[in-house]
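job 3f2a | input accepted
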Amino acid sequence: MIAPDKTLELKVLSYLLKSGNLTVNLSKVEAKDFYFPETALLLNFAKYHFKKYTTALPFEVLKRYLDKYDRADLAVKTECLLAYQQAYQLDVDEKDYLYCIDEMKEITLHKDMTKTLESAANLLVDGDATQAFKKLQEDMAGLKRSATGVEIRKRAVWEATEERKQAYIDMRDHPERFQGVPFGLKRLDELTNGMQQGEMGIVFARTGAGKTRFLFTYAYNAVQAGYDVMYFSLEMSLEQLERVYDSRAGMIPYSDIKMSKLGAPGEAEYFQLLDKIKDKRDKLYIVDIPRGCTVNAIEAEIDEYEKIYHKRPDLVIVDYLSLMQSTRKYSNTPEKMGMLTQELRELGRAKRFATFSATQANRDILEATSPGTEHVAWSDSVAPHCDLVLNIPKQSEEEKMQNLLKLIVVKYRDGANVEIETYVDWTRNYISNFEAQVVEVPKTEGPTVPTMEI
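job 3f2a | predicted structure (454 res):
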């Protein structure tokens, strides 16, 4: 049996006792995952205090609670106070907190499975095979949910009204705590507030319009903002993407790096840049899967990432959706694409990260005056599973001269059909903001080009 780890429990309690967002964080913790009586008791008091007063539990209040509590002996009460002090001395961030919860749930699952199998085995030894099988059937449903790591949450709508009040107040007073993974493009972030955990986004365009460059820009900007990003590449090699990263980080033409044509001064600056990247340890993790990429393969890589870094990524980018393979049977390509999009979204929801990918635009967009979800390749199968859908129209010659790249927000949480102008330098893999107005795009008319203010 896997041994319980008190340090895991203390880290979880540390985060809860010092968290500014208890409404969300307490919902992730269950008392059954705490093995030690003193830590389980501390959790219960923390939950009780928050439910009654919507604040974290102070040490002096805990002492008063314990003085009145008669269902634990003096030793457990003393250990509970000591656990509070030990937990409060720890420095735990959200990612470490979530990792510790997962590890504790794994220990609980192992304990429950062992108990279930031992119980069934005892019945079998007694000669009651029918009862043993029935016992296994009764326990399997709960064990199966735990084994898949799927968090099933349920309650009546009236039960958490106080928590919803506090959640509203928290967001009103501290909006920065509720921001998703930002794109690093001002107008797009203003519209979307970034990608939230469990959300799925997609960018679509015709070949050569800049889908991979946009995905890479999102990854790069998220890393610079302090987020952990996994980039699954099904088309470009690991070495190519590393050069793209260097090009963007140093604002160096990609071809000069690829062909080793920087010259002596440029080489010195490039090598200094590489040393800086190494020292900084930029948190972009690239996974090159040249063929056979499935959702299961992506999940396995994410699990390995968690074991190495003891945290989950904030953002997973898949470049790109159309090149993935399904492990399930399908009768046609639209059905396959629908299954892949749904499975990616479900994986992100289960593991609590944002997901972004890309796919082709269909040929109908060439005749359209304004892009819509119907212009996503296999749109009826893909678009319904996405929270955010972006389109990159083909650049005109005039736009190329102006370094203008348009993004059309085709679908997002609060609306659709918004045009955003960005500045692009393809040679240096750079997409940034134009200081321009966000323009509503009528569905019946073509997108208008506002006056740019650089």
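job 3f2a | Residues 180-440 form a domain with the Rossmann fold fold (CATH 3.40.50.300).
job 3f2a | closed
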